[in-house]
Amino acid sequence: MNINKTERVIFYKAFLERDSSFEGVFVVGVKTTGIFCRPTCPAKPKLENIEFYPSPKEAMLNGYRPCKVCKPLDKLGNPPSDIKQLLKYMEENPTIKITDSRLSEMGLEPNQVRRWFQKNYSLTFHNYQRMYRANNAFQRFQTNQSVTDVAYDSGYDSLSGFNNMFKNIIGSSPLNSKDKRVINITRIETDFGVMIAAATDKGICLFEFADYKLIDLELRQLKETFNAPLVQGNNPHLDTLRAQLNQYFKGERQVFDIPLDLVGTEFQKQVWLALLQIPYGCTTTYARQAELIGKPSSVRAVANANGKNKISIILPCHRVIGADGTLTGYGGGIWRKKKLLEFEKQNIIKE
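Predicted structure:
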């Protein structure tokens, strides 16, 4: 990995501190053991005994084997195979209530399942399930299905129990939910780390790295702006996002074609949409971006608006750099910004 002395010190500091924001930026080859690790590995070799590589592929090409502790070949945040099977089962059977005894029958240890969901969703598995089933019920009510049918299909023996669950999560009774909006939220594992995606019925409204320090604030802003609850569950726009992201990280997609539901002032929206005019693999400056929207004297305001962009990668604020060519701040971490720019430049010749 071609890095200077300053970057080497920064990377080593991130490695010692197990800084998850550097996941996807580098892996560490340990000369004394012949293994390579992810930035969050508990191993602590000396600086003179390590090499930095941009990806596991480069580390392996240089003779290193993956660490058995931090498992750098596993995509960050990727659920273990048994959890994947559970999530797939829930997706295929959204109305079925899965009890602890049912988890055991499926070969899953209930406490392990609970810990995984607490760690990755800040929810118990059963709360996640309730959200998932509430979202499924909400979608069915939009197609005028009866409350009674949906309630019993969702595993509830009484309408009152179903109504209470639905109202607690969606914020209204089933009968009054026809005009209600929800914000569907999910985790998406990417090559640069776990990201949080949110979508309304109109489009994607948030796509941020999970370790972004202001993400909780942004989620609250979504709830307040749309006057809608955040609900774990499926959404057609999230499915489209997953598919297009997969193409992007394979170097097969340069432009995203997905509806957006932007949350911000009119000026901010103007600035964000101007980002779409920056070609793939290229960069611009805040000054040129200000000129592009017809407000050349608003450079500082443009930079501030970029900093509040809630939809990373799709609205490519990573392509905006300082007037002197330096990489400026980025919510996902300056090293992710560098990595994204390098990735796009490497794939720019592909059509």
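Summary: DSSP finds 14 helices and ten strands in the chain.
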